[in-house]
Write a structure and sequence with these properties.
The complex is a heterodimer. Chain A is of the alpha/beta class. Helix content of chain A is 39%, strand content 15%. Chain A has a 7-stranded mixed beta sheet, sandwiched between helices. Chain A has a 4-stranded antiparallel beta sheet with strand order 9-10-13-12, with helices on one face.
Amino acid sequence: MIYLDNAATSWPKPPEVLDSIKEAMDLAGGNPGRSGHRLSIEAARRIYSCRERLAEFFNLTDVLRVIFTPNATYAINLVLKGLLKPGDSVVTSGMEHNAVMRPLRFLEGQGIRIKTAAGGADGTAGEDEIEDQFDSTTRLLVCTHASNVTGIVQPVEKLTALAHRRGVKVLVDAAQSAGILPIDIRRSGIDFLAFSGHKELLGPTGCGGLLIHPDIDGSQITPLVQGGTGSRSDLEYQPEDWPDKFEAGTANLIGIAGLEAGLKYIQARGIEELREQSIKLRKQLLEGLSVIPGVKIYGPSDPEAAVAIVSFTIKNKNVSDTGLFLDEEFGILTRVGLHCAPVAHRAMGTFPEGTVRLSPGLFTTEDEIRKTLLAVRKAARS
Amino acid sequence: MKRWGVALFHTTSCVMQAEKAFLKAGLKIKLIPTPRQFSSDCGIAVRFEWVDLNKVEEILDFSGIEFDTIHSIDQRDNIRET
């Protein structure tokens, strides 16, 4: 089997991640911070330790501004629904995932305006196009860091600086970039960074989070859910303390324990080395696909302009047939269709058919890519 | 009779921060369930040796870790507010 669906979730996970999950269950299996016994305390320690590592990883000094959520979607919803008020407007890039677009379309019904900066066919939104969308009601710019369809990396630091000059806050969807592109919250000034724990950060599914810049006043943000936090239990109202305000309900201990092991793995190998490897694999895919007759590649041709994602179609072939052919004949696992990002596919002109997406991961080998290219060649001929 | 101090916090995360800071300073501490006679803010509290009170206060002040209150208890659980 050749797994090329790491943009959906990374697989396999490093053995350390599985060990850490089992160890957390065995040695720290209490409810984190709820009870005073040793298993509960140990569980709280594991969670705090991961919080600390995430803060270090993304260069956030205040550890309490790391909020755990079930996934990036939840983190994005938390910011959009917790911050925006009727009358506000939001600017987005033209490459957003439905994790951004669906909550925004919901909020549209509540008096929030959405303006999309249409970029080029590859979905890049230039500074001018973004700036053209800003007006006096613009409260937030939402931008995906790396597209889940083409992998293209948006210049989020430049866009953040631009937004801040206009007094606009910035939410970055780092689902595809966290763990493979270095992100420095303090240097970039990103106000809200939503991340997925189970993609490039190598944790299990069901864990993600939100990092909030020190300049953001937490009292402006309403939590998405209210409930038990293990703190201020005498109150029937949600506490204002970070991170409890945003983390009602029992935390995903095993997910977070696995995520920390994933972070450690990345830190040990070095994000630069991992990035280089991913560029190499993307380059190999681009070069190999570009010489197959009938194959059309979407997204940037510069291997360094994107994370390890390549989208393509084969002339006169249905993408789902291609996906099934690659799976059944060669055991190559891809993702076909719209990738939960109809906006991006519209920008690329691939709506509603979609594309075949290949997303190598940290454990993909050059030999697997070579075999995949041979298989695509056969698919194009079949 | 051994006299202990108990530091109370608003959140578990702050207890975790305090634990790390106290251990780094070499203090002998233990995380315990918050004694019921005190505030119910957070289920876990930090118990320390009362002779270390000044150091505890110094560490909390210096690090900026948010805390609620500090109390003293002795082995028979007689409470002395500070």
